């Protein structure tokens, strides 16, 4: 039997309807469809003919984790996730250094699913199964925890490490993953939080105070995880900074307080990962071994690299579509899916020309190992510097401007390298 299709339904904040009522309405809509396309969504505009639905529903999305191709509705089993997005944004947990009175952000905290991360999952494009695998790993780990599988017999844990070069989407993927889990696991965990620990900040300044700060931070975390029906995702970005701080302390460059603080943080994280409702997410820009024993134990370790040519094309295609939707590039015309270009054997026609030029830009950018972050900046540079006419450029002109922006970016990066400065991606 094929896996169910997960249908994610965002309920409007002001709607007071019950989840069951919404589920029934959405189900009655879907059974009239012939097939469902995983990864696609229905926005309010698509639903505007159905007044009942538009009163309560903001968006319906079909999850692409379990299916790659169209699913026929007659054969589909639907699993519904009805949720509202939290619109309060991050709550910053500030701490005060008692010796100087200075405040600094020790952690940011979001209630999930959050408005801020809505749609983030879809914007991240990898052509390996990185996103899907990561969700499955974590879901399996929660399932093992639920069933009481002894981790000493079958090795598993809920520590994720994403490592790779800067700007490749590691932090974004951790946030998107936490959001996705808060939706998919909402039966088990009706409440969810994401806590981002500013590890770099914790250890960069107040070494003497760090130990106390860590202790206070974890007291708060303990309060959060004490609620067993709450999914607590704790993100530690640039986890290698812990190893650096420890090494610096060991070599006598930093006061010995710092080593105690780093060790305290690692011990606390280690304790946290044993809580059945906690998930520890870590990222690192260091690709080799990170000398932090705690991270060594992560079962879920994945390298996140710069986007391939295919993923690059998809990222730029999404940027072009967004700019056409907003009228920055006009008129609206199709940017072909790569699959369509391949089906037509890359034959050039009036309508395929912009897509073919875009594919050439993607090939060049991927060959230069350009990061996702740098790619997402190219359209802005293209419009600002290389398509400067007063009116909106058409798609073909805009793609040529993208190519010019890419060449300028590569030339600037080469110059920076000549000056032996690290290139910021
Ligand atoms: N594969 C990708 N697909 C789509 N967007 C991407 C991809 N990789 C990076 N980006 C975009 O690049 C930006 C930076 O991503 P993010 O900060 O998550 O990267 P990172 O790897 O954590 O970087 P750093 O290590 O420097 O913090 C985000 O806006 C993200 O959407």
Automatic annotation (TrEMBL):
Q: Which UniProt keywords apply?
A: ATP-binding, Meiosis, Nucleotide-binding
GO CC, sorted alphabetically, is: chromosome; nucleus
Q: Which Gene3D superfamilies match?
A: P-loop containing nucleotide triphosphate hydrolases
Q: Does the keyword ATP-binding apply?
A: yes
* Taxonomic superkingdom: Eukaryota
Q: Which InterPro entries match?
A: AAA+_ATPase (IPR003593), ATPase_AAA_core (IPR003959), P-loop_NTPase (IPR027417), Pch2-like (IPR044539), Pch2_C (IPR058249)
Q: Give a yes or no for keyword Transferase in this entry.
A: no
Q: Which GO terms describe its molecular function?
A: ATP binding; ATP hydrolysis activity
According to its UniProt entry, the protein's GO biological process terms are: meiotic recombination checkpoint signaling; reciprocal meiotic recombination
Domain (AAA+ ATPase): residue spans on this chain: 156-308
Which Pfam families is this protein grouped with?
AAA, AAA_lid_TRIP13_C, TRIP13_N
Concerning its family, UniProt says: Belongs to the AAA ATPase family. PCH2 subfamily.
Concerning PANTHER family, the annotation shows: PACHYTENE CHECKPOINT PROTEIN 2, PACHYTENE CHECKPOINT PROTEIN 2 HOMOLOG
Q: What is this protein called?
A: AAA+ ATPase domain-containing protein
Species of origin reads Arctia plantaginis
